[in-house]
Amino acid sequence: MVIAGGGTGGHIYPGLATAAELRRRGTGIFWFGNGAGPEKQLVPQEGFDFFPIKAISLSGRPSLCTFKKMAQLGAGLFEALSCLRRIRPDLVIGFGGYVSVPAVTAAIMTRVPVLLAEQNVLPGKVNRFFASRAAAIALSYEESLQYLRGAKAAVTGNPVRREIMLCREMTTEERCEIITELGLSSGRMTVLIFGGSSGAASINRAALNAVHLLGDRNDLQFLHLTGRGGFEFVRDHMPKTGRTIYRVMPYMDDMYKALALADLAICRAGATTVSELACCGCPAIMVPYPYAAENHQEYNARLLEREGGAQIILDDSLNGDDLAGRIEMLACDRQELERMGQAVRALAKDDAAVRIADLAENIIV
After folding, report:
1. How far apart are CA 277 and CA 344, in angstroms?
2. Do residues 132 and 10 both lie within one domain?
3. Is 19 helix (H, G, I), strand (E, B) or coil?
4. pLDDT tens-digit profile of 127-172?
5. 286 — phi, psi (to 5°)?
6. Number of folded domains that form the chain
7. Do 298 and 228 share a domain, yes or no?
8. What residues does 311 pair with on adjacent strands?
9. Distance (Å, rounded) from C-alpha 185 to C-alpha 57?
10. Which domain holds residue 34?
11. Is residue 6 within 8 Å of 38, Cβ to Cβ?
C-alpha cells in the first residue's frame, strides 16, 4: 500500500501509526510525501520507504505565481504516476492536505482504490474534493459525517503515536521520575502550556500574565513549552519570585512525558493535539489558531466544549486575567476538573489505527 501525506505532524503521525499497524500485519508500505517537508526525515526513521513527490498548495488568490504552482503540481502528478506504475500498489491511503493530492489523483487516474483519512471535525478541502471518488473515507469524529453526505464514510478515530498511548500506563514511580527530571513537585496541580513546535505568541503572553497573577498559589505548578521562537521572550519576562512553580522550556521531544503529568492543558486545537489530549484524558482550555484553514481548529475545540472536556477562549479575546481566573476556578474545583477529564477521554478511540487498517484490508479483498 501507498500512504500519501505530510507537511505537518497532524498529517504525518496518524499516517505513521497506521503504517506501523499495516506493517505488523505483513503489508508492504511505501510513503509519498513532500521532499521538503518533515516527513522526509520522520518516515525513514520509522523504517518505511520514502518517495519524494513535488506537491504545492494552490490556496490563496490567483496570481502570476498560480501558473508556476500549476506547473509544479503537474510535475508532482507525473512523478506520482511513474512511481505507482513501478510499485503497482493495491491501495493508496491519503491522509489529507495538499501533499496527498498528486498520489490520490494518480491513483484515481490509474484505477487504484483510494482510502482517505480525515483528522479534523471539519474535513479539509482536499478530502472533501476526493471523497466521492474514494472507496471510503475514515473519519475521526461522527460530527464530520454531515459535511460528506453521499461519501462512503466510517468513523474510525484518529491514530496517535504509540508513546502517547503508553503515558496512561505509567506507574507512580515512572511519573515521579519525570517530575524530578523536570524540576516539578508531587502533589500540585500541573498546568501544561504549549502552542506547538513554533509556539504561539498570544498564548505565551497570556500565560506569562496569568502566572504573575497566580504566583502566590502553592498548589499550582506550570510547565510552559514556549516553542523555539518564543523561549527567549518568556524566559526574560518570567516572574522571579512566588510560591508557584514555573518551568519554561522551548520544546520537548518526549511530549508524552508532559502529557502524563498534566492535569490541565492550555493549547491550540489542532487535530493531533485534540486526539492526544483525548487519549490521555487531559482537559483543556483551548485557544484555536484563528488563521487555520477554514477556521477548522475552532470546529475541533467546539466539539470538546460540547462534550464537556474543554473550555474555549478565542485568540482575539485571550488575556492573562481571564486565563488566570479559569485556572484558579478549576484548581478550586477538582471534581469539575476530573469530570472534564472523563469527558475528553470518552472521545478517544484507542484502536483507531486498527480500524483504519481493517478498512484498508476490506477494500482490497
Report:
1. 7
2. yes
3. helix
4. 999 999 999 999 999 999 999 988 999 999 999 988 898 887 888 8
5. -105, 140
6. 2
7. yes
8. 285
9. 46
10. 2-158+350-364
11. yes
